[in-house]
Amino acid sequence: MLNQLKTAKDLGTPGIFLSLTRIPLTERLIVGSSDAKLYEYDFAAEKTEALAYGEGHASYVTGVAWTTGGIVSGAYDGKVIWWDMTTRQAIRTVDAHAKWVRRVHASPDGKIVVSIADDMLAKVWDAESGKLLHTLGGHEPITPHHYPSMLYAAAFSPDGKLLATGDKVGHIVIWNVDTGAKVTTVESPGMYTWDPKQRRHSIGGIRSLAFSRDGKTLAVGGVGNIGNIDHLDGPARVELFDWQAAKSLKVLEDNKFKGLVEQLWFSPNDQWLVTSGGDNNGFVTIYDVATQQIPHQEKGHQHIHAMVGSESGNKIFTAHHGRLIAWSLTTDSATA
Question: What's the pTM value of the predicted model, to 2 decimals?
Fold first, then answer.
């Protein structure tokens, strides 16, 4: 049973952090910032200071991932950049996408990396050589209401053999990583809101994806129906799928803390599903996977853009506007 979710360390920062990764078996965090830079923070150090990476990007750094080939980042400038973790200098720069890069994710073993962007493409790279392995489509560039769509989310399965990608209108494609072949599709249209009267504008979309640790369930995060299209006043929304059957298992909506579910993370034994995001304010909400109830949730400092968890499952780290926070999760048992 989960006993407590509490702040373990709260670090005020000058920037807006849009992406986050962690070097395995450490508390060294690499964040992507709105000032087009990357920074490293060691949360295990007595005094945590920012170590800046070199020049490389020209816009918001919206994706960052640890890989066996170095830190890999993506930004609104369309570039994907590899960085040396010791010198913190760029070692490879690729003009990867024609539009904004939304996320960069690495496979669990760090050997494969994917970048997704508003050109509606997912590009799969060899992390060590930088070789482009696959260019994956499968997502329409225009919404049913004739506006540009966006490709917001991606996630690898725990064994690294599958990749899920999700877009603005709730369309999810699951791919075979080795071959680049489409395995199946899943639909979550409840993540998409269209205002036909006041603004003639759409909002929402799939903002996060995560496979359960046993690989059987796909969690999809976003926001429910929005009454005021100018604000994120819809409920934080998670939909759970048996992805192999393309069957929706459960919709979880939280009206206490509203806004986008930007990140999802299953605990190592699939006992908890941790979600984070927000509207103007942030939240961390934990669902008991078996009961689908919320044992704990906390308000976060402004919007939470990114979250990573520890190997043991007893700590998570979140990146905000002007904050990096470590949260501790304590349970009755030794495993989280």
Answer: 0.95
